[in-house]
């Protein structure tokens, strides 16, 4: 990744997120340092100095910006987003209304946009998914339909049945007999990820901003079964390993991957997992490694069909000329992940 000051200043003006955690800007006129994505008014070129880490900025006498909070490990979100997300987790059975949001001092339209930006769904949709996930969990554990209805905060039995039917395609009374995939949002420094698991392993791990995510979810429903939000031991372990990965403490994942694909796709995905962290391979190199030197385009398609990001590291595949080719989670994230892994791999090899 280029690090000359002109490149970094252009990234500052563009609020380029690919430098998140790898570059900081100190503003000489204010004595503060910021992320390159800071929403504050941009300083003039001659008034800035760049740093590769937060410690260097502080050692030079700069104070952390109170707006973009560069000392925080996660990218900043709105106070309304964090507060309401925590309230939903504390009260998953509550049915939220716009009046409830206003009563807490937040603008409903602002809250809607904040959740849409982070998770790709509105606040109401996020709250509903958590509420219905709680209900399905009650049914799966042998609870009555009435118990589940009350847990989910539904006063109307018909409304509850309709909601469950839309969620998993079955009537509540039959839900306890079905194997249901469990989903949850995982927050990372470069955006929320959707994880979907069952007792056998991980079926999906994707960034919320991936355009193909709705299609992937629908395909997963058809291939495997219904999906609902809830708690699962596999999700707890995955969340811990994802946190360690983004904290730079580990690049290893040891959970089973059970995404379904063609035999060729499965072969490519296995090859992806053999690419060491901190390195890259071209589509042609992958094709040769699986004894299909004539199939780099097929490898590219299989790479794009991968639904388990980071663990099946499709971001480690680049063009033959070294270019960062298409990535469903957006090119800047691919760049970020490669730089992150390069640094972590170097640090772990020295340690």
From TrEMBL:
Xref: InterPro entries: Ada-like_dom_sf, Ada_DNA_repair_Zn-bd, Bifunct_regulatory_prot_Ada, HTH_AraC, MethylDNA_cys_MeTrfase_AS, MethylDNA_cys_MeTrfase_DNA-bd, MethylDNA_cys_MeTrfase_DNAb, MethylG_MeTrfase_N
Gene3D superfamilies (UniProt xref): DNA Methylphosphotriester Repair Domain, Homeodomain-like, Methylated DNA-protein cysteine methyltransferase domain, Winged helix-like DNA-binding domain superfamily/Winged helix DNA-binding domain
Cited CDD domains: ATase (cd06445)
Cofactor binding summary note: Binds 1 zinc ion per subunit.
Residues in the signal sequence: none
Enzyme class: transferase
Catalytic residues identified in the record: 34, 314
Cofactor: Zn(2+)
Keywords for this protein: Activator, DNA damage, DNA repair, Metal-binding, Methyltransferase, Transferase, Zinc
Pfam families in the cross-refs: Ada_Zn_binding (PF02805), DNA_binding_1 (PF01035), HTH_18 (PF12833), Methyltransf_1N (PF02870)
Residue ranges of coiled coil: none
Residues annotated for Zn(2+) binding in this entry: 34, 38, 65, 68
GO molecular function terms listed in the Swiss-Prot or TrEMBL record: DNA-binding transcription factor activity; methylated-DNA-[protein]-cysteine S-methyltransferase activity; sequence-specific DNA binding; zinc ion binding
Catalytic activity field: a 6-O-methyl-2'-deoxyguanosine in DNA + L-cysteinyl-[protein] = S-methyl-L-cysteinyl-[protein] + a 2'-deoxyguanosine in DNA; a 4-O-methyl-thymidine in DNA + L-cysteinyl-[protein] = a thymidine in DNA + S-methyl-L-cysteinyl-[protein]
Family: Belongs to the MGMT family.
Protein name from the UniProt record: methylated-DNA--[protein]-cysteine S-methyltransferase
Source organism of the structure: Microvirga lotononidis
